[in-house]
Amino acid sequence: MKQVIWVIVVLLVIWGVYALATGQGKPAGEDGEITNDNSSEMAEEYNAISLAEQTAGNEVMVSSYKLTAPGYIVVHAVTEEGNPGDIIGHSSLLSAGVGENVSIMLDSATEAGQQVIAMLHMDTDGNGEFDAVLDQPASMPANDSTMEIAMQIAVVVAAPVTE
Fold first, then answer.
1. pLDDT tens digits along 7-53
2. Residues 118-131: tens digit of each pLDDT
3. What does the alpha-carbon distance between residue 159 and residue 128 come to, in Å, rounded to a whole number?
4. Is 14 exposed, middle or buried (0-12, 13-18, 19+ CB in 10 A)?
5. Quick check: 154 and 51 in contact, CB under 8 A?
6. What is the side-by-side order of every strand in the sheet holding 84-90?
7. For the chain, which residues make up each domain, given as ranges?
8. Cα–Cα distance between 71 and 96 in angstroms, integer?
9. Per-residue pLDDT tens for 5-19?
10. Residue 75: its pLDDT value, please?
């Protein structure tokens, strides 16, 4: 029975990677929000987020995300200990599903060498407005069969030189 569960998990992960790579779930809105709501189909899947190296400035670009229910992408500063710190920006409400290339405007500009964390939060209170206290972080499977917060850390590099 345990082997059957692992096979199902592996197949879901492979399908998720394929869906992200081929652009299924086609984002269409301003924040990469998808227009086809597959929330019943997505319920058995997992949350995920992908963040590449960032350029210094007033925005963070999220490469891709997957939400099992409506939620937000929240950008945190990183503490000296490497943990999520103050919230420095967040998306508007995103539908359940897959999206890519989502730009998150920040409250203040990042600098070269700084680290940021992009984290998924669910719309826990269901009101469509982000609330840092009520809208809890989303979870995703960890390597050891437990659940962990769906987040990814990125390093900010110097802004490109323009002539």
1. 565 555 565 555 555 554 444 344 444 333 433 343 347 888 888 88
2. 999 999 899 999 99
3. 33
4. exposed
5. yes
6. 54-55, 151-157, 115-122, 71-78, 84-90
7. 2-157
8. 7
9. 665 655 555 655 555
10. 93
The residues, any chain, with a CB within 8 Å of residue 105's CB and separated by 6 or more, are 58, 59, 89
Tokens of 137: 């972080």
Q: Give the burial class of 98: count Cβ atoms within 10 A of its Cβ; 0-12 exposed, 13-18 middle, 19 or more buried.
A: buried
**Share in percent of the chain as helix, strand, coil (round to 5):** 15, 40, 45
Name the token pair of 19: 């869906």
The pTM score is: 0.66
Single-letter amino acid code for the residue at 2: K
